[in-house]
Every structure is written in C-alpha cells, then in structure tokens.
Amino acid sequence: MSSSFLLLPREVRDIIYDYYVCCDGGYVYDFEGNKLVQANGNHIELALLRTCHQVAREMNGLALPTNTITFSTFFSEKTRGSAGQFHAAISRQKQGKDMFIEFLGYKLYTPQMATVATARYPMFEPYITSLASQSGPFFRPRNGNPYGQPPSLWREFAEFAAGADIRIRRGQNISCFARKDYEFGLAFPEEHARGLIPFCVENAKLRVERYVSLWQNALPVARQLDYTGVDLGWLRWVTDRSDSDMHLSDPEWLRNDKLAARDITKSIGTWIVEAHRLPSLGMPEGSYTLVFDGGPMPEKSTAAFAVVQRDAVWQAAFTTRFPRGSTPEHPWLNMCAQPGYFFESLPDAIRHITTTSSLIRCNFDPGQLHIDSAKALADARVGWSLERWQDDWDTHEPREFETESPLPPWYKLRWQRVMPVL
Fold first, then answer.
1. Cis upstream peptide for 406 (omega within 30°)
2. Residue 15 belongs to what domain range?
3. pLDDT along the chain (422 residues), means of 10
4. E strands, 294-366, where?
5. Label partner for 129 (CA 20 to 30 A): which of 111, 242, 252, 347?
6. Which residue, 103, 128, 161, sits at the end of a domain?
7. For residues 374 and 366, what is the distance between their CA atoms, to the nearest angstrom?
8. Environment class of residue 242 by beta-carbon count within 10 Å: exposed (0-12), middle (13-18) or buried (19+)?
C-alpha cells in the first residue's frame, strides 16, 4: 500500500523534512549520556526517517547540517583526579621535549641540522644558532617565554627537533557547531582549534564558533598562591559551604587572593595569538571564530581587556627602543625574556579585535588599541636600562581584579580548577 506522503512532490517533502529535523536552539552534546540531544534536553526525534527506505534515503545526512551543534566544556568531581593526571601527562610530555633540546641539543645538533631547522622555523634562528654553538646545556628562560611566538609554535619546533610526528584524524561532515568553554580546559586548550582545520578544509560550509568565558576559562588562575600545596579536603570544605554557613569566615589569606593585573595579558594573549595563527596553518577564512564571553561582568571585562591593550602598547614601545638585532649588548634572547614582552604578533592581532570581527571578537566592548601612542611612550624613555623598563611595565592600575556576583569570589573560582595529581 503506497503512502500518500510519498505522492507529494519531492520539493514539498524536502520542506517537510527541513521543518521536521530543525530544533529550536539546535543540538547540544550531553556529556554524561555521551549523545546529542535537543537544546531543551529532549530526545532527538527521528521517527519519520525510519518509516521506509525511501524516506530514509531522502533524509540521510539532513539533521546535522540543519542544526547548530553546541559542545560545552564539562566538569565533574568524579573526573577531577583523572583530568589532573591527563593534564600532567601532556604537560610533562611537552616538557620532556624541551629538556631534550636543552640538555642534549648541543651534542646532537650539527650545522646541517641547524640549517634545516632554521629554514623551517626562521623565527627561532637566533636560538638555533646559539644552541648549535654551545658546549654545554642551553636553557631558555624559566618563565616559559617562547621568544615572542605563540606557545604552540615553540612546541612544534621542539617536536620537530626531537623527530616527533603528529597526525590528525578526520571525522564526520557537519555544517555548523559552537563550542562553549565555560568550564576550565586542560592540556593547552588555547591550541585545541587546530584539530578542527581538516574538518573545515573538507567542508567549506562548516562554521565553528568557540565561546570562551573570560572569567571562568581564559584568565589565569595559578599565580599568587599554590592551592595544590593545601589540604584539598579542607579547602573544599572552606570554598563549598552554603550561604547559611557564611558566618564561618574564610581565612584572610584566601580572601586576599585576587586576579593580578600583571598576569592578564599573557593568559588572554595566548588565546589571541593561537587563534591568530590558525589561517597560516590552513584554517579557511570565515570557518572559525573565537568569541571572548565577558558575561556576567561586561564592564569589568572591558576593564580587564584594557590591561591587554595597555601591555600591547607598552610592548610596541619597548620593541621600538630595542628592535631585534639592534645592539650586541642587548641580544634578542635577552629581550624576549623581559616580563613585558609577550608575543611578537600581539599588538597587530589585538588591533583587529572588535565586537564584529570574523576571527576573534568579544561580546563586550574591547576598547581600542592606541598603538600610535607607542612612539611617544618610547621617546619619553630614551636611555632607560632594561631594568628600568621592567619596573615601568609592572605599574598596572588597578593592580588586581575581583569577581562580582553572580560569580563566586576569585579564590573560589581558582579552587574549582585545582587538578590534583593522584
């Protein structure tokens, strides 16, 4: 018995199919259930697809391209320990490659190898030249400065020098999805978008928007105090008490732990330069957008971003006074180790960030980069020593930031990110 539905013209059936699979808010990934669900949490209804073989063929592959798919970072106390182990393993693997170069590079690097490495990574030519000419271990600054380049580029160089090889596995074709990093990420989350490049190349229609919470993800959390040295059971009791227990005052050393202004630019800047690098790695134009989410404190987010703007201008002034290779008494390796020198491309990358820019944007007012003031800043500091420049950079105002309701205090946000290594 034929179906009256199949007697409808194919064009009409296609309209019905589109209406049937389209969900308000699209699909979201349910981490605990390990499946996609509707944005309201309901089961995805695809019963029509199973009515007969013809309808199944006509609806094949329609649901995913029609709906935006949203992935959000997820945290559970059940996985805190294993997450800490994973992060530590990835970090130590990368540290091991650094140490391989530092301790053994001077023994293994021949002039021919240095030539090959320089051709592939010309931005590290001074480091490679110094490494090849050393008679003992050669250490880079302990502050982890990647010589003004995105951290992922330094790690690529270390992997290349160590003979490492990375392959990315491709997956299913979809049209549009959003990732919301509202919980903290592990294992260098700033670089995770690189894994999306093959998918975006294969599917020109794919559009990825990655929302990163400024206060709960992008900003730094481990500077003034080392919470991992505290009894974690006691700290959980202190920071997870209900409002009815607030008469039990938190210790002053906890309440005084706030976000230091001097730590903001390196953290946010890492996200910026890693995203800024994606087109050079093959990310198609318009396929990927990084969105800094300033909620629920848009005004304070603007103030925090002003620190990044200020530091970018300061770095531009610094490099004006001490350009690369300008004087032998100030070698490039020493210049890159200065605390106010972050990433070579940072001033240019920030210049293009607005509320509507395509690669990186903010859902709050990011302010404007007054890069023209860098020259005046540099001219006013002629003759300054590196030490005086360093002291001048560390004069941020305000010196620190605190979160506001509905977010918990800054130290409680930090506790949520403690990753013990069991």
1. yes
2. 5-67
3. 83 94 91 88 91 92 88 72 67 67 64 77 77 62 65 74 42 56 65 87 87 87 47 55 52 78 92 93 92 93 95 91 67 76 89 82 90 88 87 92 89 68 48
4. 360-362
5. 347
6. 161
7. 19
8. exposed
CA distance 310 to 325: 25
322, 335 in Cβ contact below 8 A? yes
Tell me how far apart the alpha carbons of residues 402 and 233 are, in angstroms, rounded to a whole number.
Answer: 25
Residue type, 132: A
Whether 74 maps to a domain, the answer reads no
Closest CA to 368 of 308, 297, 296, 316: 308
The alpha carbon of residue 256 and the mean position of all alpha carbons in its chain are separated, in whole angstroms, by 27
Q: How far is CA 173 from CA 42, 200, 286, in A?
A: 23, 9, 17
Q: Are residues 61 and 106 in the same domain?
A: no
* CB-count burial class (<10 Å; 0-12, 13-18, 19+) for 11: exposed
Return the H-helix or E-strand segment holding 212: strand 207-213
How many domains, the chain? 3
Token pair for 326: 């300008």
37 shares its domain with 108:
no
- One-letter amino acid at 216 equals Q
Backbone phi, then psi, for 209, in 5-degree steps? -115, 120
* Confidence (pLDDT) at 110: 67
DSSP state of 123: G
Domain-embedded: residue 58? yes
Question: Which spans in 22-134 are helix H?
Answer: 53-59, 63-66, 80-108, 111-120, 125-132
Strand 259-260 with 288-293, pairing: unpaired
Q: How many CB atoms lie within 10 A of CB 56?
A: 13
- H or E, element range at 17: helix 10-21
Comparing C-alpha atoms, which of 326, 317, 342 is closest to residue 262? 342
- Give me the half-sphere count of Cα atoms (radius 13 Å) on the Cβ side of residue 63: 18
**DSSP string covering 231-276, please?**
-HHHHHHHHS--GGGTTSPPPHHHHT--EEGGGHHHHHHHHHHHHH
Question: Which pair of tokens denotes residue 101?
Answer: 């170069």
What angle is formed at CA 340 by the lines to CA 312 and CA 103, rounded to 5 degrees? Answer: 125
- Sign, CA torsion 241/247/252/255: positive
